[in-house]
Amino acid sequence: VQETDPVSRVTENFGKRMATLEMEEFKTSGDSTMYERFWQQMGDKTTAVIPGWQYVSYFLDVTNICWFLEPEFAKAVTRLHELVGNAITEGRHIVVGTGSTQLYQAALYALSPPDASEPMTMVSAAPFYSSYPLMTDFLKSGLYKWAGDAHKFTQNKPYIELVTSPNNPDGFTRKPVVNRKEGILVHDLAYYWPQYTLITSPADHDLMLFTVSKSSGHAGARIVGLSLKTKNGAKEVQTFFDNSYILMEKRWKQLRAAVEKSQLFSVPNLSTVRCNFSGRHFETQPAFAWLKCEGEIEDCGIFLRSHHILTRGGEHFRVSQKYVGISMLARDKMFDLFTKRVLEIQK
Ligand code: PMP
User: Fold this and answer.
1) Is 130 in the pocket of ligand 1 (CB under 6 A)?
2) Ligand 1 within 6 A of 168 CB?
3) Domain definitions of the chain by residue range
4) pLDDT digits (tens, 9 = 90+) for 177-223
């Protein structure tokens, strides 16, 4: 294609804009590379092979509302939720997409009336996942638009509230805050898995978003309908979540010790109850550290950058710059370096 060709201009433009969006995502949420080691250790046991003849037809199951969903994959999803006990699956439709980012956009499209006089209003309680505004307004849809912090939403009109629980970036368990009859709820349960939080009851909401990016860590697989061909039973699932839980526990201990020693920062104290999946009592150990600079430091992000720690500042989550979000899911080497640098900061 000629470089001046409109097609190549579109592709180039799209590439650039996607790159911006993906980079935002990367900086905010971090990459789940922590999981790489576990899957490497599993070797052939978790290697998937896709024969060339498979997935030629558009249709993987014409009897299903989501006809591009591989029935074996649907079974694996149901079985996993049942084993972990984090979502009701009975009487539900499973819809797959390339990550929950695409599913989020599909949900907004499906939930916004096509003939309304103005776009549907999207809100979420601050601090919220910083890609939400980008994901909502990226396509410049006339059907829906981002309206920010749900706590500040006072207009009397239809809305969709995104409830992220546990929340990105602060790890808190959340409930809707607007609570009006005309409201529609979308629950983003990306972190409702037993390595991060206590599984207290199976989630039972109208629309629930889950993602392999944060459960098994396969963010780059961007799974659509494909079957993972896992023969994994309850024991293997238990092994994976136990392993991940222990790693997260170790990291949170390491970070809390560094934070305590520095006397410059704090991290939220989260709830401790019994997890129905593991039977353990533990304090929530989120995929992010929501770090607050105590004392006089006004901009925690700039302060940490001066100590060679890159974070995402509170302003991106629509709260004070005294807060920053830091991924807890990096590779070991990176995580150790991060806590080492926190320890080296002197008062
Ligand atoms: N929701 C939340 C709260 C997230 O933190 C993320 C990823 N960081 C996503 C959704 C997007 O996940 P996916 O990789 O499935 O698009």
Assistant:
1) no
2) yes
3) 12-36+234-344, 48-221
4) 999 998 999 999 999 999 999 999 999 999 999 999 999 999 998 88
Distance (Å) from CA 100 to ligand 1 centroid = 6
Which numbered atom of ligand 1 lies nearest the CA of 101?
Answer: 16
Return the C-alpha torsion angle 296, 301, 304, 308, nearest 10: -160
- Nearest-atom number in ligand 1 for the CA of 287 is 5
Spacing, Cα 219 to ligand 1 middle (Å):
9
Rounded to two decimals, what is the model's pTM? 0.89
What is the per-residue pLDDT across 47-66, written as a single tens digit (0 to 9) for each? 888 899 988 899 999 999 99
- Classify domain 12-36+234-344 at the CATH topology level: Aspartate Aminotransferase, domain 1 (3.90.1150)
> Ligand 1: does its nearest atom lie under 6 Å from the Cβ of 100?
yes
Which parts of the chain sit beneath pLDDT 50? Answer: 1, 24-28
- Domain 48-221 sits in CATH at 3.40.640.10
